[in-house]
Amino acid sequence: MPLPSISVGGGIKVPKVGKISASGGVDLSKGINLTGGIELSKDKGNVFTSGAAKQSHEDVSHQAISSYFIGPQAENLSYFKDNLDAILEEVRKARARYYPSDGQFVSSAIQSSAAFQESTKTVAEASRKLAELLGKHSVPFWSPRYQGHMAMDMSMPALLGYFATMLYNPNNVAFEASPISTILEMEVGEQLCELLGYNTVENEYDSQPTGWGHITCDGSIANLESIWAARNLKFYPLSLRQAIEKGGKLDFIADSFKVRNCEGDERLFINLSTWELLNLKMSTILDLADRLNHEYGISSGYMEKVIDQYSIQSRGKDAVEREYDINKPGQYMVATTRHYSWPKGAAIAGIGSENVVGIPINNAAQMDIGELEKRLEENFENQQAVYAVVAIIGSTEEGAVDQLGEIVKLRHRFESRGMTFLIHADAAWGGYFATMLERDFTPGRSSYGNLPVELGGPEGFVPDSSLKPQTKEDIWWLRWADSITIDPHKAGYIPYPSGSLCYRDGRLKNLLTWTSPYLSRGSKTGIGIYGAEGSKPGAAAAATFMANKCIGLNPEGYGALLGEVTFTCSRLSAQWAAMTDDTMPFVVTPFNMLPSELADGATPESIEKEKQWIRDHILTKSNHEIINDQSKAPGGQTALELLRLLGSDLNINAFAVNFRFSSGKLNDDTNEANYLMQRIVQRLSVDSPGDDPTKIPMWLTSTEFSPKTYGVCVQNFKKRMGLQDGSQDLFVLRNVVMSPFPTEKDFIAEIVGVFKKVALEEAELCRKRNDQTVADHEFIVQGTDLIYLVHKPSFHVGNYRHQTILEVEIVGGDSQKDFVNLKKQYPKEVFHFKTKDPIDLNEYLHAKENAVLEGYIKFGTHALSYLVFQFKINSVLKDRPLDGMYQASSYPATGMPFFLYGYEGEANLDHILVKYPSAQFLAEGVSLELENSIDPMEFDKGLVVYLKGAREEAMQPFPANKDIASNPSFFFQPGKTFDVSIYRDPWEENLKAGAQQVYVDLINAPSDKFLTNGKLMLKDRLIVDSESVNFDPYYREDDVATWQDEVKQIGKKS
């Protein structure tokens, strides 16, 4: 339905973008002073500034874009206020002219009463206080310093549309509750369909289907609705077949009604196999009801009643599948990096999350088309139906765009063999970027096109940038997706909640209707009967309509805005790519590989050469200089061309940071790199109520790349960072660019400088926590005849990051006698030994001759500092690194491994720390009853005992020490008995990633490692400590958020 003409005047001031002059009124023939006479300068690192901010010049396109927002410093607030006043005046007029003869209901006498005045005062104070707290404690999305999530200042047209409509509170679930906002939503659906390339004009002579779209609360609900539609479409032919079978309501058409199967062969519908029914093309299925009406006169009302008896909506999926003996459930296929809404939606729709098949990704985080084809081929061979393949157009974490064009071509090939599926494009983030495509764009045009340069001078000049050639092509292919999710509240700069779903063939929505009497009234113009939602705010539709209309879904409107943002994103990408070199204590690695890395025969030297070129020709240059620099990079690109190749497909920069040790060696432990990045993002984001958003100088966010999800992609990323491959997830930093302002006033240099300062400080801390230096060391002393020192380890401090057991003897004077007497005098105490002076423990462990440790004994509340003991190291019984790269990928599921050492008559235990977090459990003098005796020489090497039934995986993470002490049922208590298996130590000295996994997999150890089974009983001398080993001395404590108490006071009457 066409929208009636709506004036956007009426006192509301809306910026209008018209045709923009390419030169902005500047005579280009006379040349341009590109730097305004200002020299470029470089700080001590590689963050550059042009100094261009000192002069004022014009950029026509950027001026228009600047009018869309209230502004980082509320520069346009006065215009916003004027518009709010105009809206409120219209509200007054609307109320005053509706039956004015009714007279006033709130008299001046009421308004002057004490109760009225008190109440209005309370509301005023509460409003002021709420606004104050919001201003102080909200995340400053509006600032160019914010580079976190998909959030920025909302556009003024959208805010005004939301505010104006909100005052009338329309509910778009029913036309009778929302006459104008329903019309606005229908118009928005048409706007978005047209943007995405769908046909929006019904024409009986045109075979193209007519698109249809509507607003949803978000992309997750849009994705859910698309799943619902795909499921219903796939089963519709099966329901119709039941109606046509003998005895069915439509059996009279069985002998004559024909359709074309997926391969194009015309056959009687009743004779189609289940596989053929499950693979009818969408157009064939959606034509069925119309054909039955035209060919047999069957009314749509009658068809609805008939199908309802057999439909999946009524009977449920399981019943229909049983009817047709379908044993292999239909599946969805989407990249492994998919949004969580896909398995969630499949679970809600009854498809099951396990039937959302994750397709591996390539090194750019795009779905691997070769892997998709393999999986589709497998489903084809097994005759397992596919509901849909999902192409992600702008992934949430990486900004990656799947190769939609290749997916469309792949479907065509499978259709020729008899299998089809829907294609859904999850363009929640990427949909609005379609405005950046030139109006005449067609695939195959790989040129960048001419950059519209609205030149003036250095300040305020923010060029817009085009998308990568392949990204353009895949966005163009959106027109062939059967359904598309697009979120105006992301790249449309519109308030929440405003997601949307568009169908290439609007008839698909008819499979989702669920009516009630009040919804049906006005159904010709209502949209509430379609989709998963009930009540929905008409204000969201109005906000989207206003923004789309006032800014424009075209290259001059949103295209120019997103083009400027894309240029800003590219300049940040250049910083992440080249800001660090091998002289700096930290290293930044962008997720998206540089052109030199992708080139055949890439070498460290060729990559560094390109990075240096970026430093010289991009980081050090003004926007004007980049545009006009025609010199060539090592790969043959100009500065602008190279800039456009950096970073992700759609304005999200994922990158990682590693550090160098003081020696200059690059860290190769993923856990330690993760630790650095976690500390950086903690300082550049809020993660607790006590954080003060106004004190954070730059905002980033983060994600994790797990090997299970990212596969070879994260392996490659770790390798580029200098990390060892392993099972650990990789913590990754992200910045989402939505603001067009950072490239003004050299602000990128400002925010990148902030990042550099924080990264330097945190890299120094990581050096400190990892460097091997002299330190005080503490041990647990076990045994009397044979004495062992068990080191007190720490996962977080390099000096203590190993699990060490030393076999020692006491030397010097009467020390042995003194020690034995102490043990007899305090039979239940656990003895600790602390070194007298700080030492480098590694030197002692690897000494050529037996080294001697000197220190003091302490136990309970006694610290015998007056009595010095010397322990000579006879052997290093165990020395297992606790570095993250060597940790296991999981905890033992059926038991718990311990080191077992001493001899059968006096055996000791030390819990093996396979993974962080963990706990230190030690036992001295345990009792053993073994099925077979163990050779003392085996004990001398140190064994491994597996406590069956002590299910470590189920107990991790262990409680705090005080909670363990107060729990008499805790598994590690004196007198506890366990069934055990004893093994030779399976440890391999040639260290490799995940080396500790051998202790998790003990039950699968080679037969030559197994020694015997038996029983083990704990005695008195036990150590239980779940805190020291996990304690992080560098952990940043959260501040207490006192402002939360202020929230509770809002609205309270004094």
UniProtKB/TrEMBL annotation:
Entry keyword Plastid: no
SUPFAM superfamilies for the chain: PLP-dependent transferases
GO biological process: carboxylic acid metabolic process
Cofactor section: pyridoxal 5'-phosphate
This protein's record includes keyword RNA-binding: no
Residues recorded as bearing N6-(pyridoxal phosphate)lysine in the entry: 490
GO terms, molecular function: carbon-carbon lyase activity; pyridoxal phosphate binding
Alphabetic keyword roster: Lyase, Pyridoxal phosphate
Signal peptide boundaries: none
Coiled-coil annotated residue ranges, if any: none
Domain of life, source organism: Eukaryota
Protein name: Pyridoxal-dependent decarboxylase domain protein
Species for this entry: Aplosporella prunicola CBS 121167
